[in-house]
User: Which sequence fits this backbone?
């Protein structure tokens, strides 16, 4: 399995520490915020989860050889997951209702 680590605050030291916990044999930097840790042990999921939570990284174990182009549909929460803002707050702000909506959200 490969361990994919991603986050805006990703730094090499955290990635190397987490990859070590998972028993990865090497790390590929796919972009400034995304790393692939090769040959990771998914049985280390609990330790990986704890460490990723503490340094604000998202992670996933993925079969080796699997590429993004292998997928056809991606479903996820958008606000503060795919984008870094809360859309409902921004829409409310455009309508002059941000304080009222912010009290609820």
Assistant:
């Amino acid at each position: 399995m490969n361990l994919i680590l991603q986050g805006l605050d990703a730094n090499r030291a955290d990635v190397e520490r987490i990859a070590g916990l998972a028993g990865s044999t090497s790390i590929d930097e796919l972009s400034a915020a995304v790393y692939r840790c090769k040959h990771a042990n998914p049985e280390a999921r609990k330790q990986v989860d704890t460490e990723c939570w503490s340094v604000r990284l998202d992670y996933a174990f993925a079969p080796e050889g699997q590429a993004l182009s292998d997928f056809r549909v991606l479903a996820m929460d958008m606000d503060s997951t795919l984008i870094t803002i809360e859309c409902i707050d921004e829409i409310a702000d455009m309508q002059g209702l941000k304080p009222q909506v912010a009290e609820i959200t």
Observations:
- Strands lie at 2-6, 26-31, 34-38, 58-62.
- The chain is about 35% helix and 20% strand.
- Residues 45-55 form the longest helix (11 residues).
